[in-house]
Design brief:
Oligomer: heterodimer
Keywords (chain A): Cell cycle, Cell division, Mitosis, Ubl conjugation pathway
Largest sheet of chain B: none
Number of helices of chain A: 37
GO cellular component, one term (chain A): anaphase-promoting complex
Strand content of chain B: under 5%
Radius of gyration of chain B: 30 Å
Helix content of chain A: over 70%
Distance between the termini of chain A: 68 Å
Radius of gyration of chain A: 32 Å
InterPro entries (chain A): Apc5 (IPR037679), Apc5_dom (IPR026000)
Shape of chain A: elongated
Protein name (chain A): Anaphase-promoting complex subunit 5
Largest interface: A-B, 34 and 26 residues
Shape of chain B: elongated
Number of strands of chain B: 0
Helix content of chain B: over 70%
Family (chain A): Belongs to the APC5 family.
Number of strands of chain A: 0
Structural class of chain A: mainly alpha
Strand content of chain A: under 5%
């Protein structure tokens, strides 16, 4: 080696790096040199593959150049130089220090402890998912590779991202142990505390989360800001604790303490106004919006009462309702985000606005006279507009954004990722095997350079597709729901959190159950459950309950239905105003179970109670459903006259909110109600059904179509001028279609009706064989209805 | 053999053994105690004579003629002595007697190895630890092994300190470890397995384990060590530092030696069960009548119980007996600071400065002195010096935090407080300081967390509750109901300044609960009268009561308060006059029918 001359351009990247190394060496104090020597000796003696990476030849050329050409590396070495020149021994020592401790000690300590921990871990699957991560620590290219500040930070960022995405696969304790170890190695990294906070937060450990949050902000004084890292720390000497308050607010809202969250967030608003922290203010406003939209707050007075208060700025004497305040806030926040070029926030706000538009009628703040309110409708166009605008932010990430990334450790993060995929083929395999969070095209993804689009933005952009699916669900277009959910699941899985991804799957499975029946849906559910294993309180579990309930209702297995219903009720938090959607659904299902059990008065009581709640919390869209249910209850109890106003009210709600499919279903109910008033109303009923038929046939699910078909047949049959023998197909067609669909659904009660009608029609036509077939099907279904049996094991042990 | 005589014999031999092994501070502690055993008792009839001591020979403590305020303290002392005089050796509950622990013999040395030991010990005394260890290599006697290991441990500690400075800034955190720990642990554990380890070795093993972070094993080792050789105070104090909760303390399997009482008392003190600690110390005082150590501990406990005057008497006395004492004088300085006794603090600072200026305690005292003078920069400088000398000096971190708050340097203050919490997470003062800092930054909601934490750790301190209440009451939060709850809590735990009562009254009157408001105003008024105080609060209370009673129709009481108001100057006087006029009118109308009473 000695005689080999190495020619090195002093101005090349490597040359600069070496020069700064020499410079740093020259600046070292005697003690520093001693420590360096000790470390070198330790390295020489250890002689393991810890450093093998550096000597490895299988760096291929292009990779190498890719690395070198990257501005980041440049920055690193110049960093070093800077350190070396300015705060001489200290900086150099930080590096040495890190190196020294990170290498031998960590490996030694951890090799045993982590290994044993994994073995101790009961849940094999869980530890397995962590294995590639821990592997980073354990094996030869372990955490020892993290040498500089940025690398550790990059590691932490990567972990934070993973945590936020898929918290469940992080076993709480072993990750905490890892973090503790890391903290020991690098006590000056307060961000470790932040990770501990996140870890506790996502594992619902309130006390630990609170402690770590406060601890983190006490140490960091908000200087290593979460979104806006202040480049010149001298500028803010007072510390920026508004970020802490913002986090505290989100913590409280995560744990479902809306009041405390609001207090924290209002304080955050005040402090960030004091400190002129516009970015934080914008984020805080967004957080308040999120809180207000998620949590049912029926009355704002007394919660935000301080003079800066949000509503009064409009200059109106009257206090604004929660919804109006929310809108004002959203607009304000959007404007601010736009002004400050906070892309994430912009996307978020647009999404929030879209959500708002979806569910709320925009009333002009000043409106007079009754006729003004007659025209009120939601505006799907504005929803679409906001959604499109929100995913547009992706395009705003140009090349110039890359430069801003250099101090967030993003480079190191991707470098780490690259390392783990490149150096450890088996770990990649492992990762692939649980590839739920990885895009399919990911194999082609080149990791070495940080993607120009930060994950959070990508996530938001993806979320817009999810919201599109939801909005189509409301507007009643099944194919579009499916399409958007599919787009989301295939293209944005990489950036999505497991929660969001699971809700895309939920949408797809729901679609299946409505259009293909339960067998298919349960098959799909099984697959989904495998993907999202052990997700407690998750949407998948919820979906399972939903499916089970529906099926039990259809099969007439009321006991099971009631059981599932009770489990539903347990899932939601007991705090008032939290988990509103879940609570609404639970009582809706309760009412439907009661209805199926023919306990009309009780069902009506539950439903009207629910209506009151929805009204109180301004949940207008849910109102339409509840009203429709009330109409159904009255229809079944034989009190059609009482049912009519409910059906009409529901219809008008549906019109206001553009809920087309629900509207069609309400029309069918209305028709049925009319029909049950007597055959003289059959014409009106059939007119109503015909009106709704295009929507129903285009987008309706199996049940709705069957219902419409049966109602249609019934109308025809009762028509005085209609004779079966002349035009049998016009009755038989809808009936056969309905019966087929109902068989898929296993909806016995209605199937009985369909087959009964069919049998009668065949009887009058004199087609005896077919009559017999219909009659035997009729018998089959009525038997099944009377003795409901459970094929599958019942979900008694989940909750 | 009487118990005192046996105590003496035990301590005498223990001190010799300890100092022979280089365990200086434990030896110092034992020797001090040896001297402090009440000398007046004749060796024969211990029980009867000690019964006589409290009245007669308590004059052995030069208390009565020294200070007029000594009465309170003497009362304490007497009650303690009486308690102890019941049976001197029966500090443990009746029926349980102390287990006498045989004093272990020293290793028998043959001449050659003893000489080596002597050399090694001299090196050790000259702080040439590695050299001492080297000299003793290959020696197998227990004593020699101990000294060798101990020397190695100290060498590692010394190197650790040096490295800490090399690798880091002055007060920065550091994770340097003693490099000898691993080899020491290996050796000591094999010795223990072989059974050839004595109590001193176990003590060393304990501290090595503690440094390595294996705390539960360390506790076991230390317990074993103190059960074998109870006179090693260093082992006790290591054990005590590991007992961070009462549960751990109660689960220790300790032999019932009289040293255990010292340990328990000090552990209780540390766990803030001051009353219990005080009781135990007063019992011990029956035997070790003139012990400065016990005195200082009692004074500290009294200070922590906020019995400042009593504590001051004891500290003064202590300083008189032992003028060059530095230990626990920092607490005395805190006390003087709290009492704002300028001259005494200045005197104390001067004294310790001349005694030994590079002791953490002295630096802390000087810092307190500067702080009281309002020179916060200088104060911080001295606190920093104290912390440089001992980075685990808890109260210095907290006090430095206070100084930074005074200097409006909030990040530094928060950092200092956090360091204190790192050292002891149960330090309610630091939590309180953090809360205050955030409150100063006008983040009351954020501060609440810290106040909650501190009041959880010290629920009997009214100041913490008041601070929390003030947060709730502050303009941005305006959560008056919660504030009232906190003030009620504060009022129920001995609120000296009477802030809570006054605030309760005010809050209730704001919320329109006039009855409760009047109740609390009355209580506050009574308190002020009892303490013979004057002030605007008094006027306010009287005025409110006058109005309240008038509204209630209890004119006599109202008149009484109005007339009291007339003693004051200012606008209230005029209000009182008009109130009185109103009262007259109101009284005349209903008193029409009872005219004859008037005439």
């Amino acid at each position: 080696m000695e005689d080999e001359q190495i020619y090195l351009d002093p101005n090349s990247h490597l040359g600069v790096f070496l020069r700064s190394c020499i410079l740093a060496f020259n600046m070292l104090s005697f003690e520093g040199v001693c420590h360096l020597l000790t470390n070198l000796v330790a390295y020489y003696n250890s002689n393991d593959s810890t450093y093998e990476m550096a000597e490895d030849d299988d760096f291929n050329e292009s990779d190498y150049h890719g690395l070198l050409d990257d501005p980041e590396l440049d920055c690193e070495s110049s960093d070093l130089e800077e350190y070396g020149l300015e705060n001489d021994p200290q900086a150099a020592e930080i590096m040495l220090h890190m190196q020294k401790n990170a290498l031998p000690k960590f490996l030694e300590d951890n090799e045993a402890s982590i290994d044993s921990k994994i073995k101790l871990d009961d849940d094999g699957a869980q530890s397995d998912s962590l294995a590639p991560l821990l592997n980073n620590f354990r094996s030869d290219d372990g955490l020892g590779i993290l040498r500089s500040r940025w690398q550790v930070e990059g590691y932490l960022n990567a972990q934070a991202e993973l945590l936020e995405k898929d918290a469940v696969s992080f076993p709480l304790n072993s990750f905490t142990a890892t973090l503790k170890q890391l903290q020991k190695i690098a006590p000056e990294f307060h961000r470790v505390k932040y990770l501990q906070y996140l870890n506790a937060l996502y594992h619902d450990d309130y006390i630990a989360a609170l402690d770590n949050l406060h601890c983190y902000f006490d140490y960091s004084a908000g200087m290593e800001g979460l979104f806006s890292r202040s480049t010149s720390p001298s500028e803010f000497e007072v510390g920026r604790y508004e970020t802490a308050l913002l986090c505290l607010g989100t913590l409280h809202s995560h744990f479902g303490h809306p009041k405390k969250a609001l207090e924290a967030l209002t304080e955050a608003v005040r402090v960030s106004q004091q400190n002129n922290d516009d970015a934080c203010l914008a984020y805080t406003l967004a957080a308040i919006c999120k809180l207000l939209s998620e949590v049912g707050v029926s009355n704002m007075t007394g919660i935000i009462g301080s003079p800066y208060s949000l509503g009064t700025t409009t200059g109106l004497g009257t206090p604004l309702s929660t919804q109006q305040q929310l809108l004002v806030l959203l607009k304000k926040s959007l404007r601010r985000a736009d002004h400050l070029k906070l892309t994430n926030l912009l996307a978020f706000n647009r999404l929030a606005l879209a959500k708002f538009d979806l569910k709320h009628v925009k009333k002009p703040l000043l409106c007079f006279g009754p006729e003004a309110s007659m025209k009120l409708r939601t505006c799907p166009i504005s929803v679409c507009k906001e959604l499109r605008l929100s995913s547009r932010v992706l395009s705003e990430f140009g090349a110039d954004e890359l430069l801003q990334l250099n101090d967030t450790g993003a480079f190191s993060t991707s470098w780490l990722k690259n390392l783990s995929t490149g150096a450890n083929p088996w770990s990649t395999k492992l990762q692939k095997s649980r590839s739920l969070s990885v895009n399919d095209y990911d194999t082609f993804h080149f990791h070495a350079q940080p993607s120009p689009i930060p994950g959070s933005v990508l996530q938001l952009a993806g979320e817009s597709y999810l919201l599109r699916a939801t909005s189509w669900e409301h507007y009643g277009s099944a194919p579009l729901v499916r399409m958007n959910a599919l787009v989301y699941a295939t293209c944005f899985a990489d950036a999505a959190s497991s929660l969001e991804l699971s809700s895309a799957y939920v949408k797809l499975i729901q679609h299946l159950s409505v259009f293909k029946g339960y067998t298919e849906a349960f098959k799909a559910l099984k697959l989904a459950e495998e993907k999202f294993f052990s997700v407690s309180h998750s949407r998948i579990q919820l979906l399972k309950l939903q499916l089970l309930h529906e099926r039990a209702l259809h099969r007439g297995n009321l006991k099971v239905a009631q059981q599932v219903c009770d489990q539903f009720g347990v899932l939601s938090s007991s705090v008032n105003g939290v988990d509103m959607e879940l609570k609404t659904e639970a009582s809706l299902r309760h009412a439907r179970t009661l209805l199926a059990a023919n306990q009309y008065s009780q069902a009506a009581a539950v439903a009207s109670n629910l209506f009151c709640t929805c009204y109180k919390f301004n949940m207008q869209v849910e109102n339409a459903t509840v009203l429709l249910l009330l109409a159904e209850i009255h229809k079944k109890s034989g009190d059609a006259v009482l049912g009519l106003p409910y059906a009409l009210a529901s219809l008008s709600f549906c019109k206001t909110f553009n809920l087309d499919l629900l509207e069609a279903s309400a029309s069918v109910t209305l028709a049925e109600l009319w029909f049950s008033l007597g055959s003289s109303h059959a014409k009106k009923a059939s007119y109503l059904i015909h009106q709704a038929l295009p929507m129903i046939l285009g987008h309706g699910g199996l049940e709705l179509r069957a219902r419409a078909n049966i109602a249609l047949a019934k109308c025809l049959l009762s028509h005085p001028s209609f004779s079966v023998s002349e035009d049998p197909d016009s009755v038989l067609d809808p009936l056969t279609q309905a019966s087929e669909e109902l068989e898929i659904l296993e909806y016995h009660e209605m199937a009985i009706e369909a087959f009964y009608l069919m049998a009668i029609v065949y009887d009058t036509l004199g087609r005896l064989d077919e009559r017999e077939i219909a009659a035997s099907s009729f018998r089959e279904h009525s038997m099944a209805l009377e003795n409901p049996q459970d094929e599958e094991n019942l979900p008694t042990h989940w909750v | 053999m009487t118990s005192k005589e046996s105590y003496r014999a035990e301590l005498r031999s223990a001190a010799r053994q300890l100092s022979d092994r280089g365990l200086y501070s434990a030896a110092k502690w034992a020797s001090e105690l040896l001297v402090d055993i009440d000398p007046d008792v004749p060796p024969s009839s211990s029980a009867s004579s000690s019964r006589a001591t409290p009245s007669t020979s308590s004059s052995a403590r030069p208390l009565s003629h020294l200070h007029p305020d000594v009465a309170i303290y003497r009362r304490r002392l007497r009650s303690a002595a009486v308690g102890a005089s019941g049976d001197v050796s029966a500090t443990p509950p009746a029926g349980v007697s102390y287990i006498s622990t045989p004093i272990p013999d020293d290793d028998g040395f043959d001449g050659g190895s003893n000489d080596r030991y002597l050399l090694a010990k001299s090196y050790f005394d000259c702080r040439e630890y590695r050299r001492a260890a080297h000299t003793l290599r290959g020696q197998t006697g227990k004593k020699a092994v101990f000294l060798r290991c101990y020397a190695l441990y100290l060498a590692g500690e010394k190197r650790k300190e040096e490295e800490m400075i090399e690798l880091d800034g002055s007060l920065g955190k550091s994770d340097v470890v003693n490099s000898e720990l691993i080899s020491l642990e290996r050796e000591l554990s094999s010795l223990r397995r072989a059974g050839s380890i004595d109590s001193f070795g176990l003590y060393l093993y304990g501290i090595v384990l503690k440094d390595k972070g294996c705390e539960s094993v360390a506790i076991n080792m230390l317990v074993e060590s103190v059960n074998g050789f109870p006179w090693n105070w260093s082992a006790w104090s290591e054990l005590q530092s590991l007992c961070t909760t009462t549960d751990t303390l109660n689960n220790l399997n300790l032999k019932n030696h009289w040293m255990k009482d010292f340990f328990l008392a000090s552990a209780y003190q540390e766990l803030k069960i001051h009353e219990e600690a005080l009781k135990r110390y007063e019992c011990l005082l029956g035997v070790f009548r003139s012990s400065n150590y016990i005195q200082s501990q009692i004074a500290t406990a009294l200070y922590n119980l906020r019995e400042l005057d009593d504590a001051e008497v004891i500290f003064e006395d202590l300083l008189r007996n032992d003028p060059y004492r530095v230990e626990s004088m920092d607490i005395y300085s805190n006390l003087l600071y709290a009492k704002e006794s300028f001259s005494a603090l200045s005197f104390l600072a001067h004294r310790v400065f001349l005694t030994d200026k590079y002791r953490p305690e002295s630096c802390c005292i000087i810092a307190n002195y500067y702080s009281l003078k309002g020179q916060h920069e200088k104060s911080v400088e001295y606190f920093r010096r104290a912390l440089k000398l001992n980075r685990k000096y808890l109260s210095a971190w907290t006090l430095m935090g206070h100084e930074y708050v005074e200097m409006k340097n909030t990040p530094a203050a928060i950092d200092a407080y956090r360091r204190a919490i790192e050292i002891n997470p149960r330090d309610y003062r630091a939590w309180y300081g953090l809360g205050q800092t955030y409150e100063v930054m006008s983040m009351p909601f954020y501060a609440l967390y810290y106040f909650r934490k501190s009041s959880y750790l010290q629920p009997s301190d009214s100041r913490l509750w008041i601070a929390m209440a003030q947060c709730y009451e502050s303009a941005p939060l305006q959560m008056l109901e919660e504030a009232i709850k906190c003030y009620t809590r504060a009022a129920s735990c001995n609120d000296r300044e009477g802030i809570a009562l006054y605030q309760l009254a005010k809050l209730h009157s704001v919320l329109g609960h006039s009855e409760q408001a009047a109740f609390f105003y009355k209580k506050d008024l009574d308190r002020m009268e009892a303490e013979d105080r004057q002030g605007p609060n008094m006027v306010e209370a009287i005025l409110y009561l006058a109005r309240y009673y008038k509204a209630e129709g209890r004119f006599e009481e109202s008149e009484y308060y109005c007339t009291r108001l007339l003693d004051y100057t200012g606008p209230e006087r005029e209000t009182a006059k008009s109130l009185l006029r109103g009262l007259k009118i109101a009284q005349t109308i209903p008193s029409m029918d009872i005219e004859h009473f008037g005439s």
